[in-house]
Amino acid sequence: MSQESHETPTADKPRVLVLFGGRSSEHEVSCLSARGVLWAIDPDIYDVVSVGITRTGRWTLMPHGVPRTREGTLPAVPEDGETVTLVQTRVGPRLMLLPDDVDAGAADVVDADRGRTVDLGGIDICFPVLHGPYGEDGTIQGLLASVGVPYVGADVAASAIAVDKRQMKHVFAAAGLPQVAHDVVRRADWERDPEGELARIEGLLEYPVFTKPARQGSSIGISRCTDTESLRAGVEDALGYDRVVIIERGLDGVRELECGVVGNDDPVITAPGETIHTGASFYDFDAKYLEPVKLQCPADVPDDVIERCRDYAAQAYDAVGARGLARVDFFYLPDSDEVLVNEINTIPGLTPQSMFPPVWEAQGVAFRVLIDRLLAYAMEASEESARYSP
């Protein structure tokens, strides 16, 4: 295989690596988000190379971006693409094409003279469009930091805290942010004494409750439980995704609001938007990505609720140490006039049905402009971090 068979980067444009897919159960959602990001990056300003991460964790070159799919089906990274890797070299971070047709025990896998590898050019910045474990939890951020590639979004520590709902709730509690009543079940405790755990939860929280894996998003693994047996089933289901389960008290008459946040030291925060549920008993995976949804941006709520959401969003962003971008979600209870912080997402969905782009469009910020700003924030954060490098 020759270098000429792949696009050569343009020297005068920053080269952006867009990563998507991944090993998480949110693989398809990541692909949907990446489709939007790839569309929005201005080709007059940036050179773009897209790389999909398969469900097994292999990086594969995706020269045509995210595959198109039939209506009602979700895209995924195919297993038959060429394998690539990101390495630091004497001339900076490079994307390298690797052979797949070698003996696993071969000693000459990286023998460039025999055409074993192909240099696909340097990488100036990465936009990781990865949701959930192995992408939004600090793992990919650590890899990028270790090879010296600036990247969009939160750093390793903030990513790890935000993706783990148990740790996130601890941080929010320390910051004094109001939250819904909740509890935690660990796999070891559940396997040791499930009946005792059920009794303990029922003594703390009234039905209905929601069971959630601690480190999943997109409503994957979430169940609404109304009695002991459905709670048992909900915990078992959530433990199929993580070793820790969050149990949250259900709320009557609740409205779900979401604020977008961008920036580093001085973040900008949108007015909240609202997702109007149109059928599901709660906002589950199908309702989010496979069924029509109504997004109200900005939400039709009183001015003081808007300001409370913005204030809490700023506090949540600061509490976890986020940078670049995030979406902060709230429960609003009109009857009691309460606003509760639900969670923060450091790589929010960027799909056509996601809230993050519309709340910014309602502020007069088009999606293409937003993506350009996120890339600029990433470079700014990298330059700031370089001040403290050894």
From TrEMBL:
<dbReference type="InterPro" id="IPR000291">
    <property type="entry name" value="D-Ala_lig_Van_CS"/>
</dbReference>
<feature type="binding site">
    <location>
        <position position="165"/>
    </location>
    <ligand>
        <name>ATP</name>
    </ligand>
</feature>
<keyword id="KW-0547">Nucleotide-binding</keyword>
<feature type="domain" description="ATP-grasp">
    <location>
        <begin position="169"/>
        <end position="376"/>
    </location>
</feature>
<feature type="binding site">
    <location>
        <begin position="210"/>
        <end position="212"/>
    </location>
    <ligand>
        <name>ATP</name>
    </ligand>
</feature>
<dbReference type="GO" id="GO:0046872">
    <property type="term" value="F:metal ion binding"/>
</dbReference>
<feature type="binding site">
    <location>
        <begin position="248"/>
        <end position="256"/>
    </location>
    <ligand>
        <name>ATP</name>
    </ligand>
</feature>
<keyword id="KW-0464">Manganese</keyword>
<keyword id="KW-0067">ATP-binding</keyword>
<protein>
    <recommendedName>
        <fullName>D-alanine--D-alanine ligase</fullName>
        <ecNumber>6.3.2.4</ecNumber>
    </recommendedName>
</protein>
<dbReference type="GO" id="GO:0008360">
    <property type="term" value="P:regulation of cell shape"/>
</dbReference>
<dbReference type="InterPro" id="IPR016185">
    <property type="entry name" value="PreATP-grasp_dom_sf"/>
</dbReference>
<feature type="active site">
    <location>
        <position position="354"/>
    </location>
</feature>
<feature type="binding site">
    <location>
        <position position="343"/>
    </location>
    <ligand>
        <name>Mg(2+) 2</name>
    </ligand>
</feature>
<feature type="binding site">
    <location>
        <position position="345"/>
    </location>
    <ligand>
        <name>Mg(2+) 2</name>
    </ligand>
</feature>
<comment type="pathway">
    <text>Cell wall biogenesis; peptidoglycan biosynthesis.</text>
</comment>
<keyword id="KW-0963">Cytoplasm</keyword>
<dbReference type="GO" id="GO:0005524">
    <property type="term" value="F:ATP binding"/>
</dbReference>
<keyword id="KW-0436">Ligase</keyword>
<comment type="similarity">
    <text>Belongs to the D-alanine--D-alanine ligase family.</text>
</comment>
<dbReference type="InterPro" id="IPR013815">
    <property type="entry name" value="ATP_grasp_subdomain_1"/>
</dbReference>
<dbReference type="InterPro" id="IPR005905">
    <property type="entry name" value="D_ala_D_ala"/>
</dbReference>
<keyword id="KW-0573">Peptidoglycan synthesis</keyword>
<dbReference type="InterPro" id="IPR011127">
    <property type="entry name" value="Dala_Dala_lig_N"/>
</dbReference>
<dbReference type="GO" id="GO:0005829">
    <property type="term" value="C:cytosol"/>
</dbReference>
<keyword id="KW-0460">Magnesium</keyword>
<keyword id="KW-0479">Metal-binding</keyword>
<dbReference type="InterPro" id="IPR011095">
    <property type="entry name" value="Dala_Dala_lig_C"/>
</dbReference>
<dbReference type="GO" id="GO:0008716">
    <property type="term" value="F:D-alanine-D-alanine ligase activity"/>
</dbReference>
<feature type="active site">
    <location>
        <position position="26"/>
    </location>
</feature>
<dbReference type="GO" id="GO:0071555">
    <property type="term" value="P:cell wall organization"/>
</dbReference>
<feature type="binding site">
    <location>
        <begin position="218"/>
        <end position="219"/>
    </location>
    <ligand>
        <name>ATP</name>
    </ligand>
</feature>
<keyword id="KW-0133">Cell shape</keyword>
<dbReference type="Pfam" id="PF01820">
    <property type="entry name" value="Dala_Dala_lig_N"/>
</dbReference>
<feature type="binding site">
    <location>
        <position position="343"/>
    </location>
    <ligand>
        <name>Mg(2+) 1</name>
    </ligand>
</feature>
<feature type="active site">
    <location>
        <position position="218"/>
    </location>
</feature>
<feature type="binding site">
    <location>
        <begin position="342"/>
        <end position="343"/>
    </location>
    <ligand>
        <name>ATP</name>
    </ligand>
</feature>
<dbReference type="Pfam" id="PF07478">
    <property type="entry name" value="Dala_Dala_lig_C"/>
</dbReference>
<feature type="binding site">
    <location>
        <position position="329"/>
    </location>
    <ligand>
        <name>Mg(2+) 1</name>
    </ligand>
</feature>
<comment type="function">
    <text>Cell wall formation.</text>
</comment>
<dbReference type="InterPro" id="IPR011761">
    <property type="entry name" value="ATP-grasp"/>
</dbReference>
<keyword id="KW-0961">Cell wall biogenesis/degradation</keyword>
